[in-house]
Specification:
- With 58 residues, the protein is an all-alpha fold.
- 57% of the residues lie in helices and 0% in strands.
- The protein contains three helices and no strands.
- The relative contact order is 0.06.
């Protein structure tokens, strides 16, 4: 097995992984609607900055 066979194998494995991720992402069994709406949700927890962000110690 020379280096070109290894390169072809890595390329094919990468293509298969990419195709699997695309199929998983576009499958109808996944519902990303609730996760997509999270940045627009209003409430106490969304208004507070994360720890350390936006705080300046001078």
């Amino acid at each position: 097995m020379d280096i070109n066979h290894l390169r072809v194998l890595v390329t094919l494995v990468s293509l298969a992984c990419f195709a699997a991720i695309v199929v998983w992402a576009y499958s109808r069994s996944r519902n990303f609607s609730a996760a997509a709406a999270l940045p627009f949700a209003e409430g106490e927890e969304s208004a507070a900055p994360l720890s350390g962000q936006g705080v300046r110690n001078e």
